[in-house]
């Protein structure tokens, strides 16, 4: 992975984490045990500190940055969907930020909350635990059910398993020129997209 020391500060990646080789880590970045960092993620700790606590995942093309002296933190088992942008904010334990959402400076996403896809969370926003946060600007829509929280937790466990599998089974290769006769299948999962109802 492209990893850069900046102003004497070197990123830290726990040996049990998986960081894709195309992700970029700069400066004051700390990636904890069991974390997954996806392709083309950018963690720019050149102003403030970036912390991914144990079991968190940061998916493809996510961007994390902050103002000088800020700390952007994804707490334990946090789940950040594809293309999200986090800037100087705090994502609580077991919380989820949906695809292409933006969470701004000093925002506090409470534990077990979900920020909906494409939401824009303004600077200084806060919510109660187990909130569903939606819209642009984002507001609390309602409280999440325990069933919805369990669905989120199941998805996060899938990324924790993926981190382990990637450490063990990901390898660079040349593409095939045609489909093989007995193409293997990827491991199955019982986790399905959330029902819209």
Automatic annotation (TrEMBL):
In residue numbers, the region (Disordered) covers 178-197
List the SUPFAM superfamilies hit by this protein, alphabetically.
Trimeric LpxA-like enzymes
Q: Which Pfam families match?
A: Hexapep
* Protein origin, superkingdom: Bacteria
The family database entries (NCBIfam families) matched by this protein are listed as: PaaY (TIGR02287)
Name this polypeptide is given: Phenylacetic acid degradation protein
Q: Which organism is it from?
A: Geopseudomonas sagittaria
